[in-house]
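User: Can you model how sodium ion sits in this protein?
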Amino acid sequence: AFTQRVFSGIQPSGDLHLGNYLGAIRRFVPLQDQYDCLYCVVDMHAITVWQEPNDLRRATREVAAAYIAAGVDPNKAIVFNQSQVIEHAELAWVFNCIARIGWMYRMTQFKDKAGKNSENVSLGLLAYPSLMAADILLYKATHVPVGDDQKQHLELTRDIAQKFNNDYAASIAEQGLDAEYFPITEPMIAGPATRIMSLRDGTKKMSKSDPSDQSRISLLDDADGIAKKIKRATTDPEALPSEVEGLKGRAEADNLVGIYAALSDKTKAEVLKEFGGQGWGVFKPALADLAVATLGPVSSEMKRLVSDPATIDGILRDGADRARALAETTMAEVRKIVGF
Ligand code: ADP
Ligand code: NA
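Assistant: Here's the modeled complex, given as structure tokens:
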């Protein structure tokens, strides 16, 4: 029986956006009262593509500030920075020797990020899912709340756990440990905001790593900026449907209704009950008001927190101490299992 434990992380690799907020950060908050939670700033993942060191330091504090501004309580959940708990790297190495190269080449995120240049990206970019498995399994986390884009990586985490448990079955038994040494972690991917799309092009994911996308709503945008981006969002000319089925084949409409639903903790059906038959001239201002009202307080608290880096650094240090205590227990066992 594993402790019901949640792990999730965000890369400090650019401006946090509405997709990160709705797909991940906002969902962290209610979980902290039901589970043992670890919320990590995954800076070792960020450097799989080049990061300016000072930008990385700033973005690391920004992600931690976003967690706290959104309502994560560092007394309830462990908030920490991946690189401060070196066991993440150590377990990732063991997993690099468990996972198969072919598993990594099959990852759609790797294919997207590497593009046609797949021989000239960092080795870390290819091994990224192995480090992610280490992040999760170091704490034997049973649940991982993430957006839909991480689904395939989570499946790989499960494959790695399974293969480790199998390959080392005899040694695990010799050490007197449970045969299911690592848990088979469950993804938590649910709700109307598992994949927020770009407001410019409803077929592309809203992402930190697309600098050309000016339509992205950043958590640090002011009220005016948020309202403008929503009013400029690409849509079709038709009115909103009254039923969810009416959103089929209308990616942009589906996306905006999903954002409204997630921001108001409603279902898309409930939103369409309210707005079905209305045009964008009615819906967009309502969505802009809702987004400003919801993101405004998060944004101002985030700005206040980043203006006081010593406090953030203290929270991260304390979180790392608590995370390390758990991580050291797992690594001590893993070293024996492996034969070190
Ligand atoms: P990004 O893809 O923006 O670089 P990360 O890879 O750091 O962000 O992911 C951080 C979290 O945000 C993950 O749980 C991821 O699934 C979620 N996420 C990222 N983009 C979106 C999106 N467009 N919609 C919903 N969730 C998202
Ligand atoms: Na992502």
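A couple of observations from the model: The chain has 14 helices and five strands. Strands lie at 5-10, 36-41, 78-81, 143-145, 186-188.
User: Helpful, thanks.
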